[in-house]
């Protein structure tokens, strides 16, 4: 239900954008968001169906990758690729969490009250006003996704 609310809210925001530019939404995250191969059906990532909720004036780019965490998505260069394409007016929808909890995997693990929270704040800060970023993450203690407008 929360996801449906967020999608509806995002669609409403996009409706008020100037008509000359196509709205763009960048999806980042793990397998919950990632595209799946047809052979993996019926497994479906959120990013595969999200474009169906928008009209053709909104472009959805799915950069989510199976197995990524807030740490590994950045260290493996996926976030840099997204940042290179972002421009004012773009949106980033992120979904991370279950890979961050894998304490035995040092390439992905992020302690929930420290590194995980800091990683989420960093993603938001890099694309919005820093003081607002901390507020957004604090209000979403169990952050599933955050919508961020590029400066």
UniProtKB/TrEMBL annotation:
Coiled coil: none annotated. Keywords: Hydrolase. GO terms for molecular function: hydrolase activity. Gene3D superfamilies: SGNH hydrolase. InterPro entries: GDSL, RhgT-like, SGNH_hydro_sf. The keyword Hydrolase applies. It comes from the Bacteria. Belongs to the 'GDSL' lipolytic enzyme family. This is SGNH/GDSL hydrolase family protein.
